[in-house]
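Pasting as-is:
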Amino acid sequence: MLEEWSIQKLKTEWPVIRRSWRAFSLALVAASLLVGLAVLRLSDYRYEKRIEAAEQQRDAANVSVGTLTKLLVGKGEGPTNARLQQEALNVVERLRDLLEDVEERQLEGLRVATAPVVPTFREKEIARFERRYRVSAKVLRDAMLQRLGEHARDDSASPKYDAPLGVAMLKTIAADLERLARMLPTPD
């Protein structure tokens, strides 16, 4: 209906458009420029937001590394194995809590959906992981490997520390950190 109306309108107005083709062309160019500028501004806005998010992530990682380093290194004597183990197990517990939240949502989705539900992370959870846990996990892993030696490194788990957030990746990191923490010799 709308198409028929627009075609009919164009047919009736075509003689006027044909006589004033310059004005029509100018209006078409102006409209194209306006649309182009709007698209350009929107893409600039989205790019600025991505840069801002990356800068916040970098700043949070720097703060996280600084805080964790102070906590682990202390006043120069270095952390004890027990302290390192405790910090690693705390991070493992938080990672597993994050996993639990996602798996609970998946189960809830299965109750109402007919198709299988793929576990996904919310943007807030991704930001929290990037801000709090990714750097902590890397620093703790490196500190424990420094004490245990490179033979303790799990080559299949190492790439997961830099991989995009996913359920399998999170499970692998949590298991690797727990394994390394349990390997640390601690006085009983």
